[in-house]
Design goal:
about 140 residues, about 5% helix, about 55% strand
Length: about 140
């Protein structure tokens, strides 16, 4: 099996199309986010992971997502999620992972994703300082 895509998103929806075929509507994909308040703060970004199972493979495995303070497997772990799944061979499935991350500084965190014991797929997320709402209102 393989990870086709992994993205942080604001919204995610499935819908049927002719065929029958399924469409995945992803909106608000992002790679950076303003903290809701000054650090330390907890954020909970949603990560959608799309997985494909070739027709020749068994459709049972586990998706592991480890949120780390950097791109290395030795970097500090912020959160970890294990999600078993079943997918029909030759088809796709998805997993929606919500990380609850305690952030103590503004920097780039990484979602390390893999299926079973396979290779890691990295998704960066830059944490920005909070937006000063009073400044935005003054500019309007």
């Amino acid at each position: 099996m393989q990870i086709v895509s992994a993205l942080f998103v604001e919204n995610f929806a499935l819908r049927q199309a002719a065929g029958p075929s399924t469409r995945i509507d992803l909106t608000g994909a992002f790679f950076s986010i303003a903290a809701p308040s000054p650090v330390p703060v907890t954020i909970d970004p949603h990560l959608v992971v799309l997985i494909y199972c070739p027709p020749t493979e068994i459709g049972n495995s586990v998706l592991e997502v480890v949120f780390r303070t950097g791109p290395s497997n030795d970097d500090d772990q912020l959160a970890r999620n294990l999600s078993p799944f079943t997918v029909e061979p030759g088809k796709f499935t998805y997993r929606l992972v919500r990380g609850e991350l305690l952030i103590d500084r503004y920097y780039q965190v990484f979602a390390h994703c893999r299926i079973g014991t396979g290779q890691w797929h990295l998704v960066p997320l830059t944490i920005l300082p909070p937006v000063d709402e009073t400044l935005n209102k003054a500019e309007d």
